[in-house]
Amino acid sequence: MYSSADTIWILLGSVLVFFMQAGFALLETGFTRAKNAGNIIMKNILNFSISSLVFWFIGFGLMYNGSKGGFTGIPDLFAKSDYSSTYPSPAFLIYQTMFCATAAAIVSGAMAERAKFSSYLIYSAAISALVYPVSGHWIWNSSGWLHQLGFHDFAGSTAVHMLGGLSAFIGAAVLGPRSGKYDKDGKSRAILGHNLILAALGAFILWFGWFGFNGCSTLSATGDDILLKVSRIFLNTNISGVASTVTVMFITWARYGKPDISMTINGILAGLVAITSGCDAVTPPGAFFIGLITAFTMVFSIEFIDHKLKVDDPVGTITVHGVCGALGTILTGIFSQNSGILYTNRFDFFLVQCTGVLATAIWAAVTIGLLFTVLRHTVGIRVSEDEEVQGLDYSEHGLMNSYADFMLPAGNASQYFSNPGTSAAFAPSAVLDASSGKYYDIPEVLRNTDGKIRNVVVLMNPSRFEALMTALDAINITGMTVTNVTGCGIQKGHKEYYRGAVYDTQLLPKLKVEIVISTVPVGLLIKTIRDTLYTGKIGDGKIFIYEVEDVIKVRTGKSGKAALV
Prior knowledge:
The protein has 18 helices and eight strands.
């Protein structure tokens, strides 16, 4: 006989964990740039869909159908065997499917903005079919070898989060950093996410879903003992999350001079990830200290991975899920009320926890490393530099803009410049015609550094903005004004398609970049702009050059060339 309470409890958990997919999508979208928002949403939708199908087809059986020497389950295509308990088999299958999809979704954030869509789909299938089910069998199947050792990972700090986070690390390392992430000296540059409101909403959705992730992992809601256990899990989950959040806020306030919003958002998830392993085994004070320790680890780990290892992780996935998942599992060996070092003065359980983390890490490193190596040498895993600069919304999906009724953000030009300078020490006599490959003479007035003040105005495609910033930095152009505008040339725009319907794009989003110069040769600037913006297609932009009669600096009253310093 099935228990109605247990069945409804598991199905409720399935709904809550499913809703976390929306949280992942919004968090990742908010922490990245607008030109990739559609691609990120598409990846999250397809990740869940592919993971669900593949896990149903083969992964679930490998995870839960018997055991072959404690290493893996017996294949059970389409999960046709009986997995029921006080709940029917389909309820257990759908709940476990949500966990599998979560593990597969984690890697998306670290590989955002430069990974091929096709390669990501292959990865989602592989981790759902083999990588996650095998290590999950070790941990959660009663016949699994780690389970037999006494390894405790109640809801998946290691089985789900560390596995996904380590996979993300390997993927991001193989991909390499985004264009412009590190300067020529290897110094990390901040690439701002376009919408912290979306990121915060995503974090709140994940927080909400986590009560189902942890609480419903009891797989039962029957009996006073279970209800007490569930209540404790809910409380511990929240205490660890808030302890980490508040601590990260104070850490960043002390380190950066002001409390950092994006890191604090990461702090929420770090605390939730860490408590997931021992949420049923620790006391509320133990949950508090797990959140506290995790906060310090998270901040310094994100800095280390970015600044020292030079692995570009736009969302903080590697640390939040990988590092904090492993840490939370190990800390369970210290704070567990029944078996932890603090309560028993014994290290045997702690060592088992370390063994489980290490074994899962090795399994993920070998399998995911092999997978990405094969992908890199076959279908490829990274888009071209031009496609990356243009944005994956357009290059991968033909979508001009995920925010059709809003202007594309121009970005923060100041993030690209840290060295105020003057000009290059030469004035070219000719400029490369990018369309023909030949040089043409620059008029005398354009190639001499005669000390005149000129305003160079560029109307350009927004997708080329970052490439232009990098090129201008190389010739010591350190100041500009950037404005979002709309317009079209004599061709009156062009046709695009949305959901199969044609729409006219008569007024196209453009950027207007204004650069006032006096010491930089105009010819050098023109050559740099043309070589950077040229694609040979309609819409590459136009350059206008004006002589400036005078410049006055409001603060000092200086005029002319002195006002530009």
